[in-house]
């Protein structure tokens, strides 16, 4: 019996791509830059996994994802010909862009229903303040914010899943990871958690996302409303 | 400008005394015990500070408050003549009693209003699962659960206040501790946080609680509804 649902956030709950593109345009267009904003968002996101890998491998101590987002933004700006904006502008954009991400249409109501049945928490690589701001922006209420910051490590390392189960005092078999990314679910299953795949066929652009799991999972749902309707309370 | 409110929980937000008495009676009376249930709750609570002191002093590594509650219950049972209940009964009572604590009448609505203005989080000595269950029981939505478990230390040690500010990426001067206990507020002020006293004149029984702060604080309010009405958004 599942007593807690752990949610991946970027891509699974929120549309990071169009939201980051919009936030980047809102900040940089008034400074005279006219970029392919979706390509800009993609480039920013492309540096996400390599940056975390330094922490996962032990080459670098844990730092919050806010720090990595800021470093990654500084790296891609010159690639897009954006030279020498004010440091405060970069800092503000890097923080703000990843806090104003629109939830997919089923998410707010789906989570509201699920929270009446089980414990729900983000188990994201995003840090606590980022998760709190993102929840507030979208009108989401969590039971707790778990994930990378309480583990001081990044998914898909085992410590993140283990720390989430431990925080709720639950054996992993009574917890389920919910994600639109098969790799995340595979890692969670490796720690004994149940796995639930959510289809997000347009995460990386039209038709470029996981419409179906790319490997074995316990359940696969169309969206969180479907999950809420099939989940026993 | 205050951007986050950190709440003490036991006594400040919830009436632990009558709730623990009720839960203890519900478990032990059917086993044939007829105790002074309020005295039982007081005795259980009286072991709270000494048990945490072992962790605060460094004599013992951090363990969750659930563990201390369980140990303390085992110590007081013989004092009340309750001998040899099943270990599962003790375990169940120790977990359950501190998760079904009724909020004071102003709390749920007060927190709902405050959450529309600033970040709100418990900064309690209670562990994450205890705080999550308590919030769910009362219908409270937090922005995050901070406090002892993320600091691996107990109030009033500095690490707990410091870790809460750090989790929200805020300087302590933009955070306020809200409590009905002057000692908690004094310690928070020592780390640079603002302090808000809430009157709970009946916490330890009729007329036995802090109706007013016992030392200097930044603000003193009657209840959370008053705090919400004076708080700028």
Quick tags:
homodimer, 233 residues, alpha/beta, Rossmann fold, DNA polymerase, domain 1, 2 domains, 6-stranded parallel sheet, 11 helices, 6 strands, globular
Q: Give me the secondary-structure category of chain A.
A: alpha/beta
| Largest interface, Cβ cutoff 8 Å | A-B, 23 and 23 residues
Name the quaternary structure: homodimer
Q: Would you tell me the overall average pLDDT of chain A? A: 97
Question: What is the CATH first-level class name of the largest domain in chain A?
Answer: Alpha Beta
How many structurally independent domains of chain A?
A: 2
Identify the strand order in the major beta sheet of chain A.
3-2-1-4-5-6
The helix/strand series of chain A, from N terminus to C terminus, equals EHHHHHHEHEHHEHEEH
> What percent of residues of chain A adopt helix (DSSP H or I)?
40-55%
Q: Unreliable stretches of chain A, pLDDT < 50, 5 or more residues?
A: none
Shape verdict of chain A: globular
User: CATH superfamily of the largest domain in chain A, called what?
Assistant: HAD superfamily/HAD-like
Helix count of chain A equals 11
Share of residues in strands of chain A: 5-15%
> How many β-strands of chain A, per DSSP?
6
CATH architecture of the largest domain in chain A: 3-Layer(aba) Sandwich
**End-to-end gap of chain A:** 10 Å
In this structure, how is the largest beta sheet of chain A organized? Answer: 6 strands, parallel
Here the CATH topology of the largest domain in chain A equals Rossmann fold
